[in-house]
Amino acid sequence: MNFLANACLFLLFSAAFALTASQFLPKLTPRQLAVNQLVNASRILALQGIADDSLGHISVRDPLSPNTAFLITAGSSVPAHVTPADIAVVRINDSVVTSAALSAYPPPKPNPGIFIHSSIYQRFPNTTVSSIAYYAPEQLLPFALFPDNSPNVTSTSVTPEDLTGFYAVTSGAAFLGAYPAPVYSVFDAESGATSVTVDNAIKGYEMAQKFGPAGASSQTVNLKDGFRPLVLMRNDGATMVGATVPETVFRFVQAVKNARVLYHFLSSTDAIVPQFLPAGVATEATDNPTVRSWLLWMSQIEASIKADSARSPELWEGDSVSNSSSVNKNHGAHQQPFAASASILAVCVAIFNVMLYRL
């Protein structure tokens, strides 16, 4: 009886939420939703101290053509002030910017590191990688300065000689799996390189290999020759991948927290091996922490989005698709991508909890 009651309650809740959402939520196209996610992600990573005033970018496969193009933060805006006008559409096969993501804007100038994204998207299916982020958080950089000498040593087999590897020590970093994050050196990929930037296809191809065998599944993260979701970059920064934009952001934040904990431990001891997460620990966080964190972070950037959209409304009024000649009636929906949906969700959850308690 309880099962039947709960099932009916779930269906009622779902129907109520769908009806409410259809009436009050802004009607966004898949492209607009993807653009909003990238804008929010960039600002969240800036708020978390991962993306500061330095170069950095986050991307997602284009929902209109996920196998041939991706959307990426570009232009001259710093991560904390990215707007819909800063999102570019890029071809995966040759890293060429074809247009702005939304038709009201000119094509943003691409970042030199665009080859990171195109090379990784070429190497892995969208079920493994649908979002990529490159930034240079100072917490991760120390672990990118050591040679990549222990790539095949698991977290349960570490010796004092292997302490330079970046292993998972917190549950939030369990997505790293049993092996240390690989370290990519541009100087290995291109002898005589004068820049650490991955600014051509050769460097991009060499770096993409660090994430694992071509076509590898994320489920192989605990295997010796399996997939790796994070690659550290010598003298540069780090690149994180995920199946969604929120997952990529969540992973980056957790990796930085893991780096802080590991750095403090190694600084306070001498040649003592930390108790890293064992290989058997679940490697994928459940949806709940990711969603909860994403909603919290969204609420924290809402004020800055409102302020920026009020200051420069022309940067927030793009319509749906870059090659469209019609103007979307919901062009202002970019201005408040969080408030309406979060409020409706909160109300529905509250009603659901009360009804469940009474049952």
Structural summary, described in words:
The protein is an alpha+beta fold and 359 residues long. The protein has a single domain (30-307), classed as L-fuculose-1-phosphate Aldolase (3-Layer(aba) Sandwich), CATH 3.40.225. The chain contains eight helices and eight strands. An eight-stranded mixed β-sheet has the order 4-3-2-1-5-8-7-6, with helices on both faces. The longest helix has 25 residues, at 287-311.
Mind sketching the topology for me?
Elements: H1 2-24, H2 30-47, E1 57-61, E2 69-73, E3 87-91, E4 97-100, H3 114-123, E5 131-135, E6 183-184, H4 186-189, H5 201-209, E7 230-233, E8 237-242, H6 245-268, H7 287-311, H8 339-358
Parallel strand pairs: 6-7
Antiparallel strand pairs: 1-2, 1-5, 2-3, 3-4, 5-8, 7-8
Protein name: Class II aldolase/adducin N-terminal domain-containing protein
GO molecular function: actin filament binding
InterPro entries: Aldolase-II_Adducin_sf, Aldolase_II/adducin_N, Aldolase_II/adducin_N_sf
